[in-house]
Amino acid sequence: MGDLGTVEANESVSIQTRKVGVFLGAEVTGVDLTKPLDPATVRAIGEAHAAHEVLVFPDQKIGSEDLMRFGRYFGELTVHPFSTNAADNAALIVYDNKEGNPPAATDIWHTDETFRECPPMGTMLCSKVVPALGGDTVFASMTAAYDGLSDRMQHFISGLEAVHDFKPFKELFSQTEEGRKRLKRYEELYPPVTHPVVRVHPITGRKAIFVNPQFTLYIKGMEERESRSLLDTLFRVTSILEYQYRHRWRPDMLVFWDNRSAQHSAVHDYYPQRRLMERVTIKGDRPIGPGAPADPAELRRFKMPPITAFEGRRAVRQHERGKDLM
Fold first, then answer.
1. Is the pLDDT of residue 7 over 60?
2. Which of 16, 64, 67, 119 has a CA that sits 20 to 30 A from residue 57's CA?
3. Could you list the active site residues?
């Protein structure tokens, strides 16, 4: 890996990478994404993606089919259940934000779709129309954030699990009978899932903090006050400037980031200027932690046993009698 500002060339392929951030981010040149890529080039890009966490491809005047073809080199394209997409292609997300159509709540630090059992491994975002001022995307390296924790904190959070949910998208459902029915259907399709607080990258083996304020609800098995205090501490590591790379968009740029090791936040400072982007997400695997999950007995101390410990002996409550209230 080259030093900041230097160019690194792969001997067997034509691509070159130049670091644009200290802990994450590299610009990739020497490749034309309007054309099919050979296996060696795809492999080199995949290795750079895992190493740098965020790849920037400037001056790529590509169409939607080019974007989807490039994405498929790295896995199956997925359909975001709550995003705006092309009418004839559900896997192609289209963000056309302008006056009358403001951006969604993506200005919160997050990793894409961690409410899924298998969140996307990567996301590709391509700029078509960018505002004259504003509209940057900020990335934070969660591997650098983990490395920056004290040894005691690293040891403490390793083995913890957190529950994730699609909570921000629930506001999209109307408070009508039909809206509540549709929401219930999606809650059945995407029930809360559990992921390790510390995730091990399947390629690099590096550890990363894998909780985010958009989708993470609580630490599994931990008392609410302790859970909230710990999550707030972990959420705030993205504000450490050294771990960030701020990307300033120009037209015809493609950015390919690693959801397994980086978080991002879209800056909403450009409305009502127009910002037109196309995006695809690539299917990932189930996050794996560095070891066995923590023993629940180590996470919470009860003043008295919970009532759930006495099933069959405790008093029956009204909701358990099978009778609806009138």
1. no
2. 119
3. 110, 112, 264, 279
3-class SS at 194? strand
Whether the link from the prior residue into 102 is cis, omega within 30° of 0, is: no
Per-residue pLDDT of 138-153, as tens digits, reads: 999 999 999 999 999 9
- pTM, two decimals, is 0.91
Distance between alpha carbon 20 and the CA centroid of its chain, in Å? 21
> What token pair was written down for 156?
């403490």
86, containing H or E segment? strand 85-86
DSSP string, 87-127: TTEEEEEEEEEBTTB---S--S-B-TTTTSSS--SEEEEEE
The helix (run of H) or strand (run of E) holding residue 64 is helix 64-72
Mention the CATH class of domain 7-300: alpha beta
Please give the Cα distance from 15 to 28 (Å, whole number). Answer: 7
Q: What are phi and psi of 86, to 5 degrees?
A: -65, 140
